[in-house]
Amino acid sequence: MDVTELRVALFTGNYNYVRDGANQALNRLVGYLLKQGAAVRIYSPRTDKPAFPSVGKVVGVPALALPGRGEYRAPIMIPPRVRRDIAAFDPTIFHVASPEILGHRAVSLARAHGRPVVASVHTRFETYPRYYGVAFLEPLVLAALRRFYRRCDAIVAPSESMAQLLREQRMSYDVGIWTRGVDEDTFNPARRSMEWRRSLGIADDEVVVGFVGRLVMEKGLDVFSDTIDQLQKRGVRHRVLVIGEGPAREWFERRLPQAVFAGFQKGEDLGRAVASADMLFNPSVTETFGNVTLEAMAVGLPVIAARATGSQSLVTDGLTGRLVRPGGIAAFADAIQQYCDDPDARRTAGAAGREASRRYGWDQVNQELVDTYLRIARQRAAGGRAPRMGPNP
After folding, report:
1. Are strands 279-282 and 303-306 parallel, antiparallel or unpaired?
2. Fewest CB within 10 A of the end CB: N or C in the chain?
3. 134-143 confidence digits (pLDDT tens)
4. Where does the record place the Glycosyltransferase subfamily 4-like N-terminal domain (predicted)?
5. 54 phi/psi in degrees, rounded to 5
6. Residue 22: predicted pLDDT
């Protein structure tokens, strides 16, 4: 079997109705597969006002808005019309991108028809309860995730650190890597614009600490704002630039009244915004990769990040930035203060990050997943069995 014989059925809870790093990676993957001669069909909730045009043919599935997070939609079933479409498409492999109802139903359907399943892991769902006051639910979420992933033939993680965590959590016996790429035309140091900074009221001699991402609590907004409080108490001169939108914006604005909120940016505007900061501060522990971390490195910024999955596979502590114990407010403040006070250290770390980012080309990383598809499909064609769900440890 080669790539032109692949017929990939992709199931995801969000393909393009809200823009995030995961669904943009999925769209890039579909584009790459189509370019290589594979057939692809996407099954996902749809909306009349998508965040960006989708790549490939999307078949809509019923979904309901998530309580308290109405921008996201939860698929609730695979109705008969969609089942008929799947049967007519006759996929050689199923790819499930989210462990919700749609993903579970897709895995069951694949197993019923003897088709292999590859699952991609895009976020650390088991960490979410701690941000919404229900941390006691984390073991239950872990158990549910383990049950889901163990029914798949293989899972792929976007970083080696995340893959190792999945192995330690015993999520699967076959864990591979499907990392992320960066578009160097969009993210490069030449995008930096002092004129754009001035238009936001940022002085040329102010050191800008950037935050990039959706404004939701699980991105570590509390840690970010507590760290900025520390910098202010120390009298460290800086300016915070927040790039992104989300339901927690009002809370974040109240916590950081002196910050500049640039709102949602995309394409070349996003490249300009990221490059116009002087460093990126990413305290999140929920990422499995950290697209914004790689994009910041590509434009030549030092990155201060939590020592967590994703970031620790990208940032080399002391070379391209600093890795700090999650939640370590004082240590985060120390690292940021160093880069605020020492422009040579900023430039040196930024240049090292720029060089490290060159290893991440989209075609190369997508081919790694295609190779996994082919390996799993060949194993099944050679008589390999669907995985049996072992006991939860």
Report:
1. parallel
2. C
3. 888 888 988 8
4. 20-185
5. -85, 155
6. 85
Residue 242: other Cβ atoms inside 10 A = 22
In the numeric block, which tokens belong to residue 293? 């971390």
pLDDT tens-digit readout, 78-106: 999 999 999 999 999 999 999 989 999 99
Length of the chain: 393
What are the beta bridge partners of residue 156? 120, 176
The model carries a pTM of 0.73
Domain(s) labelled CATH 3.40.50.2000 in the chain stretch across: 3-181+361-381, 189-357
Report the C-alpha gap between 261 and 271 in whole angstroms: 16
Burial of 255: CB neighbours in 10 Å, binned 0-12, 13-18, 19+:
middle
What is d(CA 179, CA 313) in angstroms, rounded to the nearest whole number?
Answer: 10
Compute how many other C-beta atoms are within 10 angstroms of the C-beta atom of residue 263: 12
Are 1 and 378 in contact by the 8 Å Cβ rule? The answer is yes
Give every strand in the sheet of 117-120, ordered side by side: 57-60, 39-44, 7-11, 93-96, 117-120, 154-157, 175-177
Strands 69-75, 63-66: pairing is antiparallel
In the block, tokens 């295609």 appear at 370
